[in-house]
Design a protein that fits this description.
single chain; mainly alpha; elongated
Length: 113
């Protein structure tokens, strides 16, 4: 079983504390069994919240990529100098009008699988 992340522990703990206080204040119970039921319900809610917090992607892909990049850097240890000539009449990009530059750009985020 994987260890819980810091975010899971934080969200779960805050949920248990705040839900316990809210239920105790709203129910105004003072009996032992009533408090026990509230505490058990708050802990169950905290576990539910902690388990539904999104977890980061697997670190196996990061390790594989870092190993591949290390192998590539060892393979490319030879440096080659290539002369580059730039023509004197290189085109200069035109400035962007202020109205276009300040226009809001739509945010495109990938959708969940």
């Amino acid at each position: 079983m994987p260890r819980p992340t810091v975010a899971q522990l934080t969200y779960g703990s805050c949920t248990v504390i705040f839900s316990t206080l809210a239920m105790l204040l709203l129910s105004q119970t003072s009996s032992g069994p009533g408090i026990a039921v509230i505490v058990v319900a708050a802990v169950a809610l905290g576990v539910l919240v902690a388990m539904t917090v999104p977890t980061p992607k697997s670190s196996r892909t990061v390790v594989a990529r870092s190993a591949a990049s290390a192998a590539a850097s060892r393979a490319q240890s030879v440096s080659v100098t290539v002369p580059v000539t730039v023509p004197a009449h290189a085109p200069v990009p035109a400035p962007v009008p202020a109205a276009v530059a300040s226009a809001p750009e739509p945010v495109r985020e990938p959708t969940a699988p």
